[in-house]
């Protein structure tokens, strides 16, 4: 009962009691002349101070917990091969619980190694990236095939150019004649217009041949000649043939001079294009810069690849480590209370594969308000009540007081750990409450809490009954421990003194 409430009740009783007794004498005095009445004093409830135990407790609700509670989990993404225990089975620390199918794990490792190799190759290619693309050809640009902001690959064609310094002529020969030519061979070409010869180089020899009307099957021999002021596209000529025995001849058909096939310029690097420096119809020379690359984007990509590579390396290490954990063992001793894992299936990551609990010791986690925590000490005795067992009292002891509280409904509470004796019947997760005995004295003078008006800490008043006259007189007392049922009286009242109480004797 709170001090404030007791003060109100006690004062009210004193007023009522005093008022009743005073009224009695007033009535007696005024009615004495009328008729004699036998005087009878009012009987107010009293209690005798005695000696005994006084204890102060702190009430709290809590939850029952096992000594050890392990939820067995695994990051393995492979199937469970065998489950080695059953629900209800007692296991010791280190007992094998289940095994994984290592075939899947080994396959995952192989896949990760391939992915890692690809990332390493990508990093190598990033290191080879160039800051520009240069021409390796001489000629006039016919087509630009890349734009700023686009991404190019190493073998991608970025431009096509025409060799403006040379012309091509194709000589038509019979098979036996075509075999006498070699790529790179220097030959002469007869110019029909000027009846002169010019020098050329064989660049290609047809191995298939084509059938030509009135000539049979002929084979093409391509010859590249240097263009000069007297030779142009559309001029006609014939490629000269020299046999092994010194015989000389010309290709079977007169053909026209034309520009060589378009030449392709490839990127030779990869990445994002920053700027294109040339345009169509521009003349380019070998070594000339055609495109500038965005190296800032390449640096960012390189950093991302480095992160991906590191993650892949760590993932591979983890997978190999997981493979070494093919057999999962218990980290605590106890009873297997739940098995969610199933043979032939992967473990559901949202649930523990197994649950192991050690119920050899049982605890209550009591939620204590922050205003009460200063009074609680390790070793204090506790009366524990578990909802499932009604009013049965279980003895307990405070074994741990946390250094940090948690906020619940705008109040701070501390989870005090209480060891429960004889808690073998309890189950993990049961709810209950407890009285923590924070102070206790024995063989002291005491009064019920409804016999003392507490004025302030250490001080109170009582209504003491005179053993001779039966009169009730107020008296100040020194109080000690204020318990739930009794208050310790240090001075002012001795054992045997009768004191008025309010209400009943409970």
Automatic annotation (TrEMBL):
GO cellular component: cell envelope
Record's keyword terms, sorted: Coiled coil
Keyword ATP-binding: no
Location(s), subcellular: Cell envelope
Pfam families listed in its UniProt record: Beta-barrel_RND_2
Gene3D superfamilies with a match to the protein in the record: 2.40.30.170, 2.40.420.20, 2.40.50.100
Coiled coil: 102-129, 293-322
Record InterPro entries: Beta-barrel_RND_2, UPF0194_transport
Residue ranges occupied by any CusB-like beta-barrel domain in the UniProt entry: 362-434
Entry superkingdom: Bacteria
PANTHER family associated with the record: EFFLUX SYSTEM COMPONENT YKNX-RELATED
Designated name of the protein: HlyD family efflux transporter periplasmic adaptor subunit
């Amino acid at each position: 009962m709170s001090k404030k409430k007791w003060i109100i009740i006690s004062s009210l009783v004193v007023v009522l009691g005093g008022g009743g007794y005073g009224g009695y004498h007033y009535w007696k005095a005024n009615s004495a002349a009328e008729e004699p009445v036998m005087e009878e004093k009012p009987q107010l409830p009293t209690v005798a101070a005695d000696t005994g135990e006084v204890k102060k407790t702190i009430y709290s609700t809590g939850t029952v917990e096992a000594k050890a509670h392990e939820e067995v989990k695994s990051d393995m993404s492979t199937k469970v091969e065998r489950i080695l225990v059953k629900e209800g089975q007692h296991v010791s620390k280190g007992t094998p619980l289940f095994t994984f199918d290592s075939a899947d794990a080994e396959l995952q490792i192989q896949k990760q190694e391939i992915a890692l190799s690809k990332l390493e190759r990508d990093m190598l290619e990033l290191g080879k990236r160039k800051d520009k693309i240069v021409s390796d050809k001489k000629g006039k640009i016919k087509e630009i095939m890349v734009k700023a902001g686009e991404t190019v690959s190493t073998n991608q064609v970025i431009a096509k150019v025409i060799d403006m310094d040379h012309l091509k002529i194709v000589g038509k020969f019979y098979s036996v004649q075509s075999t006498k030519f070699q790529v790179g061979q220097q030959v002469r070409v007869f110019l029909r217009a000027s009846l002169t010869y010019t020098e050329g180089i064989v660049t290609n020899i047809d191995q298939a041949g084509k059938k030509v009307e009135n000539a049979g099957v002929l084979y093409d021999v391509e010859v590249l000649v240097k263009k000069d002021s007297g030779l142009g596209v559309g001029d006609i000529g014939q490629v000269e043939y020299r046999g092994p025995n010194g015989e000389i001849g010309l290709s079977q058909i007169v053909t026209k001079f034309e520009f060589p096939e378009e030449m392709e310029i490839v990127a030779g690097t990869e990445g994002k294009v920053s700027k294109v420096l040339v345009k169509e119809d521009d003349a380019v020379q070998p070594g000339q810069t055609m495109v500038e690359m965005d190296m800032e984007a390449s640096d960012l990509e390189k950093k991302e690849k480095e992160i991906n590579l590191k993650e892949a390396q760590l993932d591979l290490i983890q997978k190999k480590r997981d493979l070494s954990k093919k057999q999962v063992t218990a980290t605590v001793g106890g009873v297997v209370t739940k098995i969610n894992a199933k043979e032939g299936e992967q473990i559901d990551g949202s649930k523990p594969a197994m649950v192991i609990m050690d119920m050899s010791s049982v605890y209550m986690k009591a939620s204590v308000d922050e205003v009460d925590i200063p009074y609680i000490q390790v070793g204090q005795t506790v009366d524990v009540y578990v909802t499932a067992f009604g009013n049965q009292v279980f003895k307990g002891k405070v074994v741990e007081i946390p250094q940090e509280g948690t906020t619940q409904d705008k109040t701070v509470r501390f989870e005090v750990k209480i060891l429960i004796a004889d808690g073998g019947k309890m189950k993990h997760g049961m709810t209950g409450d407890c009285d923590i005995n924070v102070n206790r004295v024995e063989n002291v003078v005491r009064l019920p809490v409804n016999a003392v008006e507490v004025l302030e800490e250490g001080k109170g008043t009582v209504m003491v009954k005179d053993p001779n006259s039966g009169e009730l007189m107020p008296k100040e007392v020194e109080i000690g421990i204020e318990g739930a049922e009794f208050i310790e009286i240090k001075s002012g009242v001795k054992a045997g003194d009768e004191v008025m109480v309010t209400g009943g004797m409970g």
